[in-house]
Write a structure and sequence with these properties.
The complex is a heterotrimer of chains A (247), B (235) and C (410).
Chain A: H1 2-6, H2 8-27, H3 31-60, H4 62-69, H5 75-105, H6 109-135, H7 139-167, H8 174-182, H9 185-196, H10 204-214, H11 217-243
Helix pairs in contact in A: 2-3, 2-5, 3-5, 3-6, 3-7, 3-9, 5-6, 5-11, 6-7, 6-9, 6-11, 9-11
Chain B: E1 2-11, E2 14-24, E3 29-33, H1 40-48, E4 55-60, E5 63-64, E6 75-78, H2 90-101, H3 110-114, H4 130-143, E7 148-152, H5 160-175, E8 179-183, E9 196-201, E10 204-210, H6 211-218, H7 223-234
Helix pairs in contact in B: 6-7
Chain C: H1 2-18, E1 21-24, H2 33-39, E2 45-48, E3 52-53, E4 58-60, E5 65-68, E6 73-75, E7 83-85, E8 91-93, E9 96-98, E10 109-114, E11 120-122, E12 125-127, E13 131-136, E14 142-144, E15 147-149, E16 162-168, E17 171-173, E18 176-178, E19 184-190, E20 193-195, E21 198-200, E22 205-210, E23 215-218, E24 221-223, E25 227-235, E26 237-240, E27 243-245, E28 253-266, E29 269-271, E30 275-280, E31 283-288, E32 291-293, E33 297-301, E34 306-311, E35 314-316, E36 320-324, E37 332-334, E38 337-338, H3 361-368, H4 379-390
Parallel strand pairs in C: 1-2, 2-5, 3-6, 4-7, 5-8, 6-9, 7-10, 8-11, 9-12, 10-13, 11-14, 12-15, 13-16, 14-17, 15-18, 16-19, 17-20, 18-21, 19-22, 20-23, 21-24, 22-25, 23-26, 24-27, 25-28, 26-28, 27-29, 28-30, 28-31, 29-32, 30-33, 31-34, 32-35, 33-36, 34-37, 35-38
The chains are: A mainly alpha (247), B alpha/beta (235), C mainly beta (410).
């Protein structure tokens, strides 16, 4: 834990986040617009950094993990403490880097939601990174997989959705889109925040359907449960795999 | 104390362990030797539970180690290459290990004192030289007075003085009735402390004999020469 | 000359003598406005003191001036049309008119003008009326400085604030209208001026304009209505220096133009609307010196429009500058300021050297495939837009500003 926190990269990450968010808020005359620009950072940079940092950290700790495994410890608890350590440290960096400025400039429900979604995304991508790292023994390939996963979630998935939308343009796709959005935590987080930002009106009929769903307590609850599942499922599989992995 | 029974372990096409059966007892100092890739490290990993055998089983104190983890409290392990979180200090590392073991036992700090690590407690692991890191590894392995010590290439990377300190410690612990399992290719180093020799090649156990019998059989006083003779015979 | 002055003075005296003032009030001899109207002669003034008058429907069928002192209350008791004007040159000034009746058959109003000329309705407060001030077949009438308020009972149960039908040469000035169906409604109204009104929170439109030609509206504020202004099936309309603000919601516009031609849109401010201007089937329209700020779409131009000339406007902070649904472009964009413009100005003439394309690929995609809005603000869409800017392929080739300004146009 302290090891991760002291890591130089981690400190740089925090400072970069802090600097961008502060400058975004002070540059934009409208705090809401600053929030929107921040949203892009949260949706792109946070997953990327969480993925890469966690993957690299796990690979660099390979020998240390071996040593820990030789200790009287359950493998599960070793793996979980690594996950928790990474998740907490990255979340702390996020909270300091983004959270403090957001609460300073935008102390309201939207700012709060932004924070929660950012933290969830951080943890989700730590879980995904751990899953990737446990699958592949080779460090370079593992990092490659992590980058690929990031590309998938932030770009390829949406491209695929766009493709589907055009292929099935004749069908009413608004409702299935809610389901599709659940398949990508980045999309889900983005939509959750956008709907709160009053932009739903611009989204026309789709926005209305989304609002009907995500605007209700039940919808928001389901969305957050889905996001939590995005943490639990990769974590479960990676723990399962780690339990029977040869080191 | 440790019994391996027909253990087989395969990595892809490579058979790292092929039907290996070994028995090691208290008070022995067993040396595992063999060329690179002969399966020494894999065997150790299987014993430590880091690798899981494809078939066969290993017992520790008559208990199957599969799906058990508590038995490792009785093992001290010194890895071949120790790599620790870079930003952790030696002191924090020791503290963490103590937390993990959570033992009431008196700690064996001989090596910490011997290696003069006490003055380095505030240093970060990332800044240490390879030799110092090895010293830390060794100190950790002995710290909790384990009944079994598994040392993977313990003298590699250590300076002669440290090496000597470690050897003395190993002998002392052997005399205390502990089982010590060492891998090494530098044979001459460990001549004077070994009681049993296990020789492995291509995943197979070639022989497992006590050093006295080995010497008698080959007529060689030096371990290295004795093994060389055996190998010639086998060839 | 002396003679003329004498005649003039005589005339004034004549009016003084023959135009009586009739006082009405709880403390006066005449207690009801109805009886005052009954006994009054053409040209008389009725002065009403403060108090509450529940007199049902007052019909004024002769030329009278009704003046309220300290806002006497005329209560329609949710049953009646309060004042019906059926004579020329009537003046209604300084009344509070409450609770008109509601009916789907008759358009009950607070004040209704039937087929009359030169009527003046000013300084009144209308509260909870079905229709507020209703003009039909009116000519040269003035509706000035009235305050109208209704309570949003849904589109069917609520009438328009100032409703004008088949009229000519009206002046609608300085009124505030809140919570009606349409703030101001014009149908078949010509040669009229709508000026300095403020309409807010009306259910449908702030100003609704149909089949009305040669009209001008200027310096009005249309804020937070269902949609700001709709101008449909009209021509020769001048829209000057108005404020279209916060018309935000599904299918909400600052200004909706449908089947309109030969009009001017100059000096207006469009701010925080879902769509600043939505044009459909519009032609020959000049748009200059407008500010489009923080809208979802600054302008949506359907392909059915032609000869729209957009010049010298400022586009700032809009999510999308221009949206369109086709590739045919018969409109021109010149010398506008676009805050998203990323070009350069080597010869320093304050005009960018490369054209600006205000239609983003993503806005085209959304236009064709609305569910794609799901990807709003995702990485892929911004990537698509960037590539499209470099290699335009899908956005309309001709929809561009060849002379984008480097600095704000004004």
């Amino acid at each position: 834990m302290t090891d991760i926190l002291r890591s130089r990269i981690m400190i740089i990450y925090t400072i970069v986040l802090l600097a961008t968010s502060l400058s975004l808020f002070s540059l934009e005359d409208n705090a809401n617009k600053g929030l929107l620009s921040l949203l892009n950072i949260i949706l792109i940079i946070v997953p990327l950094f969480s993925l890469l940092f966690s993957t690299i950290y796990i690979y660099n700790s390979a020998e240390f993990i071996e040593l820990l495994v030789s200790q009287p410890l359950q493998r599960k608890s070793i793996w979980l403490s690594f996950s928790v350590g990474l998740a907490i440290s990255l979340s702390m960096a996020f909270v300091i880097g983004i959270g403090v400025p957001v609460l300073l400039f935008q102390f309201n429900a939207i700012g709060f939601l932004l924070l929660i979604v950012g933290i969830l995304l951080t943890v989700i991508f730590v879980a995904i990174a751990l899953w990737a790292a446990v699958q592949i023994r080779d460090k370079a390939k593992g990092i490659g997989l992590a980058i690929l996963l990031w590309m998938y979630f932030s770009l390829l998935f949406d491209g695929f959705v766009l493709f589907l939308l055009f292929q099935f343009a004749d069908y009413p796709l608004e409702k299935p889109m809610i389901l599709v959005s659940a398949l990508n935590p980045i999309d889900l987080g983005r939509i959750l925040i956008l709907l709160q930002l009053d932009i739903s009106a611009m989204m026309g009929y789709t926005g209305a359907i989304f609002k009907d769903f995500f605007g209700t307590i039940a919808g928001v609850t389901i969305a957050f449960i889905t996001l939590t599942l995005w943490i639990i499922i990769p974590l479960y599989f990676s723990t399962h795999k780690f339990n029977r992995k040869d080191l | 104390m440790i019994i391996a029974n027909n253990v087989t372990k395969q990595y892809g096409k490579l058979k790292a362990l092929d039907n290996v059966s070994v028995t090691c007892n208290k008070g022995e100092c067993v040396i595992l030797i063999g060329p690179n890739g002969s399966g020494k490290t894999t065997l150790i990993k299987c014993i430590l539970g880091m690798a899981i055998p494809d078939s066969g089983f290993i017992t520790f104190d008559k208990k199957n180690i599969n799906k058990d983890w508590a038995y490792r409290a009785a093992i001290g392990y010194m890895p071949q290459i120790g790599k620790y979180p870079e930003n952790m200090t030696i002191g924090q590392l020791l503290g963490m290990m103590k937390d993990i073991r959570n033992t009431q036992q008196v700690l064996d700090e001989d090596l910490i004192v011997g290696f003069k690590l006490n003055s380095l407690l505030h240093k970060r692991m990332g800044t240490l030289s390879g030799g110092t890191t090895q010293k830390v590894s060794a100190a950790l392995a002995f710290l909790f007075n384990p009944a079994v010590l598994i040392l993977d290439e313990p003298t590699a990377g250590l300076d002669p003085i440290a090496s000597e300190i470690l050897k003395e410690k190993i002998i002392a612990e052997k005399d205390n009735g502990k089982l010590i399992l060492v891998t090494s290719h530098v044979l001459s180093d460990l001549d004077d402390l070994v009681t049993e020799v296990i020789y492995m090649q291509e995943g197979k156990l070639c022989f497992h004999q006590s050093i006295e019998i080995l010497r008698q059989n080959t007529g060689e006083e030096k371990l290295a020469k004795a093994i060389a003779t055996i190998m010639l015979k086998n060839a | 000359m002396k003679k003329a002055i004498l005649i003039l003075m005589a005339l004034i005296f004549w009016i003084e003598i023959f135009a009586n003032i009739i006082y009405v009030g709880p403390l006066q001899k005449i207690k009801s406005i109805r009886s005052a109207i009954h006994i009054a002669n053409k040209g008389d003034t009725i002065l009403v003191s403060s108090g509450t008058y529940k007199e049902g429907n007052l019909i004024i069928s002769k030329q009278l001036t009704l003046i309220g002192k300290k806002y006497p209350i005329l209560d329609g008791q949710n049953k009646f049309e309060v004042i019906s004007i059926k004579a020329n040159k009537v003046v209604i000034d300084g009344f509070k008119i409450y609770h008109s009746g509601t009916s789907n058959l008759d358009d009950y109003a607070g004040i209704k003008i039937y087929d009359s000329r030169e009527v003046v309705i000013q300084n009144n407060i209308l509260d909870d009326t079905y229709f507020g001030i209703y003009l039909q077949y009116a000519k040269n009438c003035v509706v000035k400085n009235n305050q109208l308020k209704a309570y949003n009972k849904g589109e069917q149960q609520s009438g328009n604030g100032v409703h004008c039908w088949k009229s000519d040469s009206l002046h609608i000035i300085g009124n505030t209208i809140d919570g009606h169906r349409d703030g101001i409604y014009f149908e078949f109204v010509t040669n009229s001026l709508i000026k300095a009104n403020t309409t807010t929170h009306n259910i449908r439109y702030g100003l609704h304009f149909m089949f009305s030609n040669n009209d001008t509206y200027q310096s009005n504020s249309f804020i937070a209505n269902g949609a700001g202004v709709a101008v449909m099936y009209s021509n020769k309309v001048s829209m000057l220096a108005n404020n279209f603000k916060e018309n935000w919601g599904d299918a909400a516009y600052g200004l909706l133009l449908k089947e309109i031609s030969d009009s001017y849109i100059v000096g207006n401010v469009f701010e925080k609307n879902t769509s600043g201007i939505y044009l459909e089937g519009a032609s020959r329209i000049q748009m200059n010196h407008n500010i489009f700020k923080n809208n979802g779409w600054a302008m949506k131009i359907q392909a059915s429009c032609m000869d729209i000339n957009v010049a010298q406007n400022n586009f700032e902070g809009n999510t999308f500058d221009i949206g369109t649904n086709g590739s045919l472009v018969l409109n021109t964009f010149n010398k506008n300021y676009w805050d998203k413009y990323e070009g350069y100005d080597l010869n320093r003439d304050k005009i960018g050297d490369i054209p600006y394309r205000p239609v983003s690929l993503y806005s085209m995609i959304v236009e064709q495939n609305p569910p794609a809005m799901m990807l709003f603000r995702s990485f892929i869409t911004s990537l698509l837009d960037k590539t499209e800017k470099l290699i335009p392929s899908l956005t309309p080739e001709n929809l561009k500003d060849n002379t984008p300004l480097m600095r704000k146009a004004f």
